[in-house]
Amino acid sequence: MDAATAKTNLLGLDRPGLEGLFASLGEKPFRAGQVLQWLHARGCDDFVAMTNLSKALRERLAQGSQIAAPQVQADHLASDGTRKWLFQVPGGSAIETVYIPETRRGTLCVSSQVGCQLNCSFCQTARQGFNRNLGVDEIVGQIWAASRLLPPHPAREKPITNVVFMGMGEPLLNFDNVVAAIRVMLDDLAYGLSWRRVTVSTSGVVPMIDRLREECPVALAVSLHAPDDALRDELVPLNRRYPIDVLLDACRRYVAGDSRRRITFEYTLLAGVNDHPAQAKALAKLLARVPAKVNLIPYNPVAGLPYSTSPPQAVAQFRDELLRRGLVATVRKTRGDDIAGACGQLAGQVLPRARRAVPLSPSA
Ligand code: SAH
């Protein structure tokens, strides 16, 4: 519900939500599928155009509901084709969404919160503080708006083939809304993405990793960044609550029972901090117990922070140490850095909350 208009935003409803809405209107459940298709597969924002619904039903829908995505505040195109939008959200803040085109896929990097509570020492978003969780409509609104704004792709039906929750925020601390949004992304009549192509990235909220496995086991990426607790406590303070051992056990449970599944471990390389070959060796040893692949991220400098990017030789050496020990390891290509759209550079505009003390434990 939008408080100002008291109209339900249809972008915030997954299929069960829409079925509930239609039940309340005395309509059959299949109407939910029809509306999902109009909204998401066809990018429709006008009830009048939904011609397989009766005129009377369209009018009733228009009276009680709306189709409202976050408003574009800025739209930047990087020299490598990466595109970044700043979306205004109610309350005066803005969030960022990034589209990364590649030959065979197009990845949309979405935000899940306005700001972040986790305070990772090297991340730009952390410096913005935390304002609030995004609603389902605001998460789905990012893919809805991007799908409409992106030009048609010459070689494939849809420009967006993959979604990663690697924008602003910790998705597992906004669990219910993130899962409902993912349901829309996976719905065949909406975006029809396979679970392999939707990745939730987490700093390691262990209880919520287990809930995700039970409710919506999409691809999982874990921001590890250190091979031992002492260093990880410093870089990712959430580690003090859920240390590496406990986290890796949750990762093992996440993929148990399906030998094809792996966890992606993100590891941002910070010069002289976590990029020593001995640390690669320790990392390989640690990850021997989990079906894993490692994604090494060259650090994108953040103004005012005491970290710098590992030199390319150090990155290559770190990767080779992992490969030599049988791990799958890749180096993430830095994309969109000329528009501050690279990993950890997403800042948006986060207004301070009246009260900043937010419990770390997930609300759900
Ligand atoms: N909170 C979630 C989602 C954010 S994903 C998580 O932590 O996984 C963004 C990824 O980029 C995380 O792995 C994060 O640690 C990493 N990152 C943050 N700041 C960065 C920076 N300046 N350079 C490179 N990677 C960074």
User: Looking across the biggest beta sheet, what order are the strands in?
Assistant: 3-4-5-6-9-10-11-12-13-14
**What structural class results from the helix and strand content?**
alpha/beta
Regarding quaternary structure, how should these chains be classified?
Answer: single chain
What's the end-to-end separation, in Å?
20 Å
Mean pLDDT: 93
Beta percentage is 15-25%
Overall form: globular
Question: Would you write up a description of this structure?
Answer:
This protein is of the alpha/beta class and about 375 residues long. Helix content is about 30%, strand content about 20%. The strands form 3 sheets. The chain has a 10-stranded mixed sheet. A hairpin with a 5-residue loop joins strand 3 and strand 4. Helix 1 packs across helix 2, helix 5 runs parallel beside helix 6 and helix 7 packs parallel to helix 9. The protein is globular, with a radius of gyration of 21 Å. It starts with 7 loop residues before the first strand and ends in a 33-residue tail after the last strand. The structure holds S-adenosyl-L-homocysteine. The site of S-adenosyl-L-homocysteine has 18 residues, from strand 10 and strand 12.
